[in-house]
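Bench notes, afternoon.
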Amino acid sequence: MSILKVNGIDLAFDSYGNETDETILLIAGLGTQMIRWTAPFCEMLAHRGYRVIRFDNRDTGLSTHFNQYATLDFEALARTLMSGQRPEIPYTLDDMSDDAIGLLDVLGIKKAHVVGRSMGGMIAQLVAGRYPDRVLSLTSIMSTTGNPVLPPTSPEVMALMTRPTPNPMKDEAGYLAQSVAFAKRIAGTGYPFNENEYRSLIQEEIQRAYDPGSIGRQIAAIAVSGDRRPLLSKVKVPALVIHGLDDPMFVPACGEDTAQAISDAELMLLEGMGHDMPTPLYATIVDGIERVARGKD
């Protein structure tokens, strides 16, 4: 793992595979760290002949945090947005897409295949739309376009995601129990939920960094990001949209809308997949990423 100065902040990253191979840049989701792109998944991609880079988004993991800002008041954010005003927020998804390109700049990488999951999919979409000369292909996983007419995340799931959590430094068991309960709720029904594996992943994230305010700041960045469809209509690189049919966070219509917004995009709807990437689906997802990266039908 290394840390580089990018756009005036620190970004932590690591790399798999041969540095002379084409690059696949993996962008993590809301409030999660780069280790959610697990080592076995990264190694599987690298074995297909790619250099695979994963990194901590700003405000997560070992990258720069913005905890000097007040904790987000979700009700105040909603009121501001409903009034048609733009709230004061520390950063936007555009800033986060600039980070992805800035990391490639510092590493001397001219072009990359860009892959994002959930919020990372939104960032990947912005990278492809805003920096067309830097992107070889786009894969958007369990994400959405910002289309305001799409079905929203259910209030129940939003409440589970945004409710206060115990401080893991004082009550690790309570924190883990709440995190696991939420993960189970958004997981699909087609694959066993590996509670021990997930618990170990959360413990590793706690050990790397704990910042209870970061998820709120990133939700605010998503909330003001707007409708990406006009930008996506200009994307000309090969594109793949992967979405779970059991996703309760972004329902399948969100994946379908993403694929419709991008010319000639391939849509891969996966039975039994929720808002997660179960290990048994790694090979299927890697096959899809490789297929679009190589421009295969």
